[in-house]
Amino acid sequence: MTTDPVSPMVTNLKLKRKSRILEITFDSGDTHQVSCEMLRVYSPSAEVHGHGNPVLVTHKKNVNIKALTPVGNYAVKIVFDDGHDTGLFSWKVLHDLATNQAELWENYLARLRAAKASREPLIDMAVKYHN
Question: Which of 25, 31, 66, 90 is 20 to 30 Å from 100 by CA-CA measure?
């Protein structure tokens, strides 16, 4: 009888706004960089997963993260600058995205090509952040 291995815990999240990257460090010592676009198009929200029929999210090349809010010691709520804020990213979801991102990204690009869809934003946005 085998048991599922426990996913590593997230020990640090560092948002790199200019490069639109979320740097994720796990308690295993591994650090991964995941684009905001990938996090947005693979959001674990019902809006994206469509009750078992995943929705192809398009036009998110320039999306960024507006806020990160911890949820207990198991997840983070990510608020994107396009207004999407309903996905809770558990440590397991973040670990799966980080460690499988090459394959997931290729699958996403293939779905875009098949749908003749685009990553490019519909309206070019120049967003400025104030501290």
Answer: 66
